[in-house]
Design a protein that fits this description.
The protein is built from 19 helices and no strands. With 398 residues, the chain is mainly alpha-helical. Helix 12 runs antiparallel to helix 17.
Length: 398
């Protein structure tokens, strides 16, 4: 009697497919969201993106029927990212943070620190860590122009890091999908400092999932030198590395922590020592709402609503922020993640809580948990370390 062979882990690996929303309903929702933003926003660059981007999403709706997912994704990216970006570059319009990054690079070259000594208005503040100024160096050195615009370099860094963090052989569709998603397409076109941060976080977690502590530490250290939001990824990576064997996990964890802290310190400390007062005012006091000048990040999320409308609300919001960070840390210790996707999802939840309770916050910060969740979904469907399945199959056939 003939027997039916059971599917091997390698067969299951090959059959796994990318499965995130991509039907007509999803792209119709994206078109409606972009049009709604264009209708209600008071920001010119966002209005341009919403108007032009809607055409890209409509093109994706029309392309869905009978066409490969790559064609649909390419149509969405062309209309929702490339066309709005070209229009905004042509009229020299961008989100404020693009100007902040460009100015910080000019200050870094002139004064050795990317922070103005006496900021007076919100536009004078640079709430990012010193590494972010690197994206403004092309403009500071070669002058303003379409090819030196900081948003191009930030977008390129994100796409490269996110693509490399994805499993080999399944990068094109997830990359196109995430680039076309409104929460990512908008900052790609108007300027988004959060994109390179979350891209490097995904890459660091991917390397930690492969057991490469040194490489994980390098990418996470670079992310940590850009913005505070990257720092929670380091304990997540260390908890993930702790899931290995006793000797390996100790060595990999130590390498990760050492390389990450060394990288971040090398990029952050020189500017902090140059002017400690300016560093504190820009990257600590201003984001926490502790300066007389109020941040323009004012989306109606719980932390901002508490700080604005409740007596003592800022203290309450910071307390909730600290309590949520403590809970996530305890959960990591009690139940450390077993895989890189597990670590990414726990990090996404922690960042979502932080975004909710920060006194100065905006909806755009949600790109962090979104990208981490998408990356975790793709990697769960097709694990990064494919050779593991090959070894399992070989052992099963011996």
């Amino acid at each position: 009697m003939a027997t039916t062979a059971l599917p091997t882990p390698l067969d299951q690996h090959r059959r796994t497919r990318f499965a995130l929303p991509g039907g007509p309903g999803w792209w119709t929702f994206c078109a409606a969201a972009s049009l709604a933003l264009a209708a209600f926003t008071s920001l010119g660059p966002h209005r341009v993106w919403g108007t032009v981007g809607a055409l890209g999403y409509v093109a994706a709706v029309l392309a869905v029927r009978g066409r490969p997912a790559l064609i649909v994704g390419a149509a969405a990216v062309t209309g929702a990212v490339v066309l709005p970006l070209v229009v905004l570059l042509a009229v020299d319009r961008a989100q404020l943070e693009v100007e902040v990054v460009a100015r910080s690079a000019a200050l870094l070259l002139a004064d050795g620190t990317p922070y103005a000594a006496h900021p007076l208005i919100p536009e004078d503040f640079n709430p990012y860590l010193p590494g972010m100024a690197a994206f403004g160096l092309p403009e500071a050195v070669a002058g303003a122009g379409p090819l030196t615009d900081p948003r191009l370099w930030m977008g390129a860094a994100f796409l490269a890091a996110f693509a490399y963090a994805l499993p080999t052989g399944s990068r094109r569709e997830p990359l196109l999908w995430v680039a076309a998603c409104p929460l990512v397409a908008l900052p790609l076109a108007v300027g988004g400092v959060d994109l390179p941060v979350v891209g490097l976080m995904c890459l660091g977690l991917a390397e930690a999932g492969r057991g490469r502590g040194g490489r994980a530490g390098l990418w996470l250290g670079l992310a940590a030198a850009l913005k505070w939001t990257a720092w929670p990824a380091l304990p997540g990576a260390l908890a993930l590395l702790a899931a290995g064997s006793a000797g390996d996990r100790r060595r990999a964890g130590l390498r990760c922590a050492f390389v990450a802290l060394l990288t971040a310190a090398a990029l952050v400390l020189p500017a902090a020592w140059r002017d400690p007062g300016a560093f504190h005012a820009h990257v600590i006091a201003f984001p926490l709402g502790l300066t007389d000048t109020v941040s323009s990040a004012a989306s109606p999320l719980p932390g901002h609503l508490l700080a604005t409308h409740v007596p003592g609300g800022r203290t309450l919001a910071l307390g909730l922020l600290g309590a949520s960070a403590l809970l996530v840390a305890v959960y990591l210790l009690v139940r450390p993640p077993a895989t890189a996707p597990d670590a990414a999802l726990r990090l996404a939840v922690g960042l979502l809580l932080a975004i909710a309770f920060l006194p100065a916050t905006r909806f755009g910060y949600l790109v962090h948990p979104l990208v981490l969740a998408v990356w975790a979904t793709v990697v769960r469907q097709r694990p990064v370390d494919a050779p593991v399945f090959v070894r399992i199959q070989k052992q099963a056939t011996r």
